[in-house]
Amino acid sequence: MTGASGRIGRWVVRGLVGAGARVRAMSRDPEAARALLPAGVEIVPGDFTRPETWSAALDGVRRVHLFPRVDPEGGFVRRAVEAGTRRFVVHSAVAAGFAEGGTPTSALSPLERHLAHERDWHRGVERSVEATGVEWTHVRPGLPANWALGWADGIRGAGEVRSPHPGSASVVVHEADVAEIAVSALLTDDHFGATYTITGPGPITQAEQVRTIGAALGREIRFVELTPEQARAEWHDPAGGIDDDVLDWLIPLLASPLVDIVPATTTYEEITGRPPRTFAQWAHDNVADFQ
């Protein structure tokens, strides 16, 4: 497991452990990972940026859940195959399936440049795996529901969410749905060469998400609508990674028809026979983060 401590990764690990699989997690912070992962998971130090840590992490590993922060040039992937890995399940992103345009980068808007970068990065990781000739499956999550965790401080403190565009709708996906497909791809032989885009059941606006979180908490959460200019002033935090370059694409993203950029798919239901988990289920599963 790479990315084992992440929100989706933790669900993947739980699914693998529940199925009786032996799991090794590579982590930059093994002590922190140990507090998040189930007992019985072997946790070893490792970092995609430190090749000297890869050999110990990959020794004896036959199947890899590949987190997208890996270098798309494929150094880690090649080392894994050399060590004996015969199957990759790539934690990719819906952006990998975006169409490539012919417009020069300099002529793109900040949002268009961001989406093109996301596409190129994730598709690069996918291609590095495909080039190995071993078994692979690409799992492309849509917009993760856990983006709403960015509201947690405001909900816990002032009992409010401050954002522009309350009517902006997106199709968000529960991390458990993504993990369930990844676990099946790791443990069964049913998904070789498949690319799956996993989304939630349908669009939900920012305001509806806030009301849903409030229902899970049993209290009303206020939505304070900001202008784009107010959001830029309040959210600007270079030390926290939110600088002008990020705000230049993030705020227009909220104003965009997100349901057109990432529409709902039926992939999860086609594979499992069950409808995707709703945002209400996600809010219930994560209510402690907002308390």
UniProtKB/TrEMBL annotation:
Pfam family, one: NAD_binding_10
Database matches in SUPFAM superfamilies: NAD(P)-binding Rossmann-fold domains
Source superkingdom: Bacteria
InterPro entries: Ergot_Alk_Oxidoreductase (IPR051604), NAD(P)-bd_dom (IPR016040), NAD(P)-bd_dom_sf (IPR036291)
Domain spans labelled NAD(P)-binding: 3-187
Protein known as: NmrA family protein
Origin species: Spongiactinospora rosea
